TrEMBL record:
Residue ranges of DNA binding: 31-50
One Pfam assignment: TetR_N
Keywords: DNA-binding
Organism: Patiriisocius marinus
Protein name: TetR family transcriptional regulator
Domain HTH tetR-type, residue spans: 8-68
Gene3D superfamilies to which the protein is assigned, alphabetical: Tetracycline Repressor, domain 2
One MF term in the entry's GO annotations: DNA binding
SUPFAM superfamilies: Homeodomain-like (SSF46689)
Length: 194
């Protein structure tokens, strides 16, 4: 059991080092040797867990995406109204992005780079299924605009990444009023105006 835990700890250290180095240096300026050094393992150890740098980054992306969506949907119930469900999920996403800033920054970088392969992107999208299902229901009920889920995500969720980044830079401090205004803007951007 101790050997298994040591193995898990090494893999987790590699994932954590990857996130930190990619956030600070970008994908291309993050060699495997730096990841190994920061994780305090030999470079050869990486290859016990990952095939190569691409595999390491893809699996880190999927791990972080799974953690992010688990948190986002943890208290969501499928029988909530569309507006209640969206508000809950949106606020949980905002909470994650502001509390788990390093992980959220890593996901934001992954969303804006060709480094993540298409198979891993599709796996990441699967983790968002409860939100996509809520939007499908909202479209059927005439509550959510009948537009692409990518556009819905771009208008309703992506602005949170921008707010997280400017807060991290110290340019803006989000308080409850700002978050309420941001939520209202997100909801207004995707709901059908009656």
């Amino acid at each position: 059991m101790a050997k298994l835990q040591k193995s898990i700890d090494k893999r987790n250290a590699l994932v954590k080092a990857t996130i930190e180095l990619v956030n600070n240096n970008g994908f291309h300026a993050t060699p495997m040797s730096k990841i190994a050094k920061m994780a305090k393992v030999s470079p050869a150890t990486i290859y016990l867990y990952f095939e190569n740098k691409q595999d390491l980054v893809n699996k880190t992306y999927i791990d972080v995406k799974a953690e992010y969506t688990k948190y986002a949907f943890e208290t969501y119930k499928g029988d909530m109204t569309v507006e209640e469900g969206f508000k809950l999920i949106w606020n949980r996403i905002a909470d994650f992005k502001l509390k788990e800033c390093e992980n959220a920054m890593f996901l934001a970088q992954c969303d804006n780079t060709p480094m993540i392969d298409e198979q891993s992107r599709q796996e990441g999208i699967k983790h968002l299924q409860p939100l996509l299902d809520l939007w499908t229901r909202g479209k059927k009920e005439g509550i959510i605009k009948p537009i692409s889920d990518y556009l819905l995500y771009a208008y309703a969720i992506n602005p949170l990444s921008f707010l997280m980044i400017i807060q991290k830079r110290g340019a803006f401090q989000l308080d409850k009023t700002h978050l309420d205004e941001a939520y209202q803007s997100a909801w207004n951007s995707i709901k059908v105006i009656k």
